[in-house]
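Quick one: structure for this chain?
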Amino acid sequence: MTVTIDDIRRAAELIGGTIALSPCIAAPRLSQKSGADVHLKLETVHVTGSFKERGALARLLTLAPEAARAGVIAMSAGNHAQGVACHATRLGIPATIVMPEGTPFTKIERTEDFGARVLLHGRTLAEARAFAWQVADRDGLTFVHPYDDPMVVAGQGTIGLELAEQLPGLDDVIVPIGGGGLIAGIATAIRALRPQVRIWGVQTALYPAMRQALAGAPVSAGGDTLAEGIAVAEPGRLPREMLIGLLEDILLVDEGAIERAVHLLIDQQKIVAEGAGAAPVAALLANPDPFRGRQVAVVIGGGNIDDRLLASILMRGLVRDGRLIRIRIELNDAPGALSRVTRLVADAGGNIVEIYHQRLFFDVPVKRAEVDAVVEIRNFRHAELLVKALVDGGFPTRQMTYTNSGG
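Got it. Here's what it folds into:
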């Protein structure tokens, strides 16, 4: 069994009245950083915030009437769940979604808001999938697989049809890989329409399952990753068979690179992407040489990131970029000393975000005190000037934040 360009065209006809064409925008800042002509295919704009609803809807629209009446079940870390829930509810099809117990709260809530029954089971997608099959057999439900289903793959492949129209001069496409349905569909469509275009996959270093499987190596994957949407330990059989001979390479990215890519997309492109969605950007920036001077489409697969996680990434990004530092200041434990410190910080152009006054611990002399301050600044050089101003003002100071500036 495989998926052809005709299957993808049929899927495009089925979903075309519901799923809008997603934009493919130029990314000049990323182009400058990478040396390539970069365009971002924004699958974040769909109702559920992810490409997954393409394949989910294509599969739902091809259900037999009796299967639609009985209902469907799916297992998912979140995006496939929302796609199935959204369109099943809209079509009047009962939907049950099995999610791993560690799924981000925002994805659970949104799936329930779309009208599905959510069951939490297992620590991994594999455990959730096994349980979903049990429930499907018990209740007579149709299992809608997130990537190992021909119509799901065909639905995801409609992205390839759109890219071929949007970027006539396309040279490369970079696509995240979890189970493989997305890249299998895109690669099939692109190679049928633009055979010269190179297709690159991206996986996290913790979950290189598809790369290992295609190389004939034992699959070893696991760990906590920011890109939980592509944290798949067992790639789909159908996508794996389809991808043989279609890919230029599968690039691996570590957790730090993914975090920086999420922050960069918000800071420089004003685009919110989840870890799996930002992984192709991380791969491009970590491996710019193959793409220099070429037109590159980067598929941003989803934007469903937990709010608290996003807030942490943004604040850590400020530290990494030298715009937020923590300093420790020693001063006399006397009236007016702290006031003089805050005045020096203000005069140096710093903005105190948080401040902690310590005088009770034994490593501080009894007539002295220490102040830990989190200060908003402009850049690394500004940090050095701020510390110097405090030292020159009579307050020994050292940075407690260490960044890639070498400080």
